[in-house]
Amino acid sequence: MHQPNESLTIAQRCRDSFVKLWQDEAGFVVSMELILIVTILVIGMIAGLTALRDAVVGELTDVARSVQQMNQSYSVNGVENGSASTSGSGFQDHNDGGSSTCIVVFGPPDES
């Protein structure tokens, strides 16, 4: 190490600081504890996010099934009044070719 009153170049100061940090082991236990805690938290977050993903997919599957079961049939009766009249109107919704099945990404298709 150099004396504090000597003028040092930036490279020498950096090297001296690096040597001091390399030889210092006072914070080793604390940093290992933090690494262990962070590792446990990350594993817990992964499990929690997986559960959240499954719940969101389940809810979106329910929404898709309810949209598939929507019936858009309607009928309107005609109106007669004196010299004017209108005829009724109606529409009967039929099942589409593939609307009875639902593509399920996660879980079995018979899930309710």
Automatic annotation (TrEMBL):
The chain crosses the membrane at residues 28-52. This is Uncharacterized protein. Residues 78-112 are annotated as: Disordered. Keywords: Membrane, Transmembrane, Transmembrane helix. Residues 78-102 have a biased composition (Polar residues). It comes from the Bacteria.
